[in-house]
């Protein structure tokens, strides 16, 4: 019989930046490489296709990019959100996608979904304020955010090479610890799909 630690987990990785040279996309790519063997991260590539939330549009049915995003969340065991920080908060495209995914309230795909958050910024605080703000939104959606460890990648421009590959060893260790904790957390609090 397979033990729980043998269970393979799929994690939907969402980077909250749209730009090609994004530090947060680079951090998510590093996470894919650093994943423990029982955890597969699928990178969500279509954040930029999601239209601005509009309840009138929603009332006619979810637009295809929204339906695709919700379905990707539903079919993953857990989420890994890699957020930039814009003006001390969550960037608009990411918040907008979360707003769509949070519907309908109380039975959304975010409900009871295990999740981990990390983020990279060029500044010195490494997205701490954006991460706290995201955690606050996830209280309302009842998304089960891993409490610790926190991965705040400050001065991130120095930590990736010109091709966007993580070159800072201690950041890599923190990312790996986060992924191991997410795997354990998902087995503990997540539902079998
Ligand atoms: C509109 C805007 C607001 C920003 N506000 C913050 C901020 O509040 N804190 C911070 O550390 N960095 C801030 N930055 C700098 C971002 O950390 C930096 O641009 C980072 O590279 C964005 O993430 P990305 O590389 O994944 O696109 C801001 C950047 C932009 C474009």
What descriptors fit this protein?
single chain, 193 residues, alpha/beta, six-stranded parallel beta sheet, 37% helix, binds flavin mononucleotide
What does this structure look like?
- This protein is 37% helix and 15% strand.
- The chain is built from six helices and six strands; from the N terminus they run βαβααβαβαββα.
- It has helices spanning 23-34, 55-59, 64-74, 92-101, 128-140, 169-189, and strands at residues 9-15, 39-43, 78-82, 114-120, 144-145, 151-153.
- Strand 1, helix 1 and strand 2 (39-43) form a beta-alpha-beta unit.
- It is globular.
- The two termini are 19 Å apart.
- The chain binds flavin mononucleotide.
- Residues 17, 19, 22-24, 84-88, 121-123, 125 line the site of flavin mononucleotide.
Shape: globular
- Overall mean pLDDT stands at 96
Helix percentage: 25-40%
Given helix and strand content, the structural type is alpha/beta
The number of helical segments is: 6
What Rg do the Cα atoms give? 16 Å
For the sheet with most strands, the description reads: 6 strands, parallel
Low-confidence stretches: none
What is the terminal separation in angstroms? 19 Å
Beta-strand portion reads 15-25%
Quaternary state of the chains: single chain
Helix and strand run: EHEHHEHEHEEH
Number of E-state strands? 6
| Ligands bound, unique | flavin mononucleotide
Quick structural summary:
The chain is of the alpha/beta class. The chain has helices at 23-34, 55-59, 64-74, 92-101, 128-140, 169-189; strands spanning 9-15, 39-43, 78-82, 114-120, 144-145, 151-153. 37% of the residues lie in helices and 15% in strands.
